[in-house]
Q: What sequence folds into this?
């Protein structure tokens, strides 16, 4: 469940809560510290219990599953974090993984800053106290919405992991052309750009290509990818 705050007017007509409740929420946000975080910083770690609620004022966040090992930076500074599986993009103003906060469950996604962002940091206990003050029925509805959203997120992430190979296989089939040796795909774009089209990290795309080579479905390690087993790729892609 998300309450969108209109930055200019901060009006309550876009909010599902009563006017007085929106005013209370606005006061809580204003009283909470505003933190500026640089790009590539991790704001939420998958598997950790949230002790605070985050409200994104400005900037863009990416939610998904981080790669196990961050990339080494080309210069001085922290390592670069990459999403192994990207679930969604959040643009402020918006709440960050509110379902985990409401349910008191470990975060099911990692969240990193795509740009420099400003977030309000609200104590979880203070937010829950405000939500519970709206009455048992309203809080019960919110709790159920949060549970449903959490389940949908977990299922979607699971599908992303399982479907990476299928999506890559389908992409290869769609971009194949006939050569003297058979079907092949010329990688005219950078792997990072192709991975973005597929909604996966560049590392995941490279790993899937290696796996397809190990299965003898494709061959070649340069910009020309030979489709050795077109039937096998179609079976994998489900087309």
A:
């Amino acid at each position: 469940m998300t309450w969108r705050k209109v930055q200019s007017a901060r009006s309550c007509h876009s909010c599902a809560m009563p006017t007085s409740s929106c005013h209370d929420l606005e006061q809580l946000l204003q009283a909470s510290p505003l933190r500026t975080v640089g790009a590539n910083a991790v704001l939420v770690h998958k598997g950790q219990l949230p002790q605070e609620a985050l409200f994104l004022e400005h900037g863009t966040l990416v939610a998904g599953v981080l790669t196990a090992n961050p990339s080494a930076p080309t210069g001085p500074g922290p390592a670069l974090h990459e999403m192994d599986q990207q679930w969604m993009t959040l643009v402020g103003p918006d709440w960050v993984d509110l379902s985990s906060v409401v349910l008191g469950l470990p975060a099911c996604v990692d969240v990193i800053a795509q740009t420099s962002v400003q977030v309000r940091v609200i104590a979880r206990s203070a937010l829950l106290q405000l939500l519970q003050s709206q009455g048992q029925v309203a809080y019960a509805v919110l709790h159920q919405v949060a549970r449903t959203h959490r389940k949908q997120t977990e299922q979607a992430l699971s599908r992303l992991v399982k479907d990476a190979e299928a999506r890559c296989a389908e992409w290869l089939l769609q971009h194949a052309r006939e050569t003297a040796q058979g079907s092949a795909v010329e990688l005219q774009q950078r792997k990072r750009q192709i991975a973005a089209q597929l909604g996966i990290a560049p590392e995941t795309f490279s790993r899937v290509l290696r796996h397809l080579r190990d299965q003898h479905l494709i061959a070649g390690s340069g910009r020309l990818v030979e489709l050795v087993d077109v039937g096998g790729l179609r079976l994998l892609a489900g087309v």
In short: The chain has seven helices and twelve strands.
